[in-house]
Known about the structure:
Elements: H1 2-33, H2 35-38, H3 54-69, H4 72-75, H5 82-105, H6 117-129, E1 132-133, H7 149-161, E2 166-167
Helix pairs in contact: 1-5, 3-5, 5-6, 6-7
Amino acid sequence: MNTILIITAIVLATFLAMEWVAWASHKYIMHGFGWGWHRDHHEPHDKALEKNDLYAVVGAAMSISMFMLGSDVVAGAYAWWPATWIGVGILLYGIVYTLVHDGLVHQRYFRFVPKRGYAKRLVQAHKLHHATIGKEGGVSFGFVLARDPAKLKAELKRQREAGEAVVRESAGA
């Protein structure tokens, strides 16, 4: 029983940590030196795949690396058992990210527009993230946790007025 609690704690802690990893990667890499891969995600197109999807491959590589590090078959005597469960946490975050971001928010897999609740808040927050033109400025860099859309609009308005971001007029900021 103790082992199950430890494993559950590792998976849950990893899943929660991945939101911070995703936020930091999105803000400082995707909207920084990695903009070349991320740009097409912010521009209209009719392609099934985006260069931005390469970031999912990076996430998968992180998870696979943890599985390998935790495997006796690959790492042999140097296997580190918690790595397997860290890999599971990363994998679960990737699944939720894919369903929430690509599915719910961008409707790449299914069409559903939430009318209320947290799902609506997630969609609103991410649409406000896409309210800026270019990689400068912006709000809501996380994928699973979303701040109050009213606060995000206020932050966009402040960025626009300070000249820190170009905000689309349709964003209402």
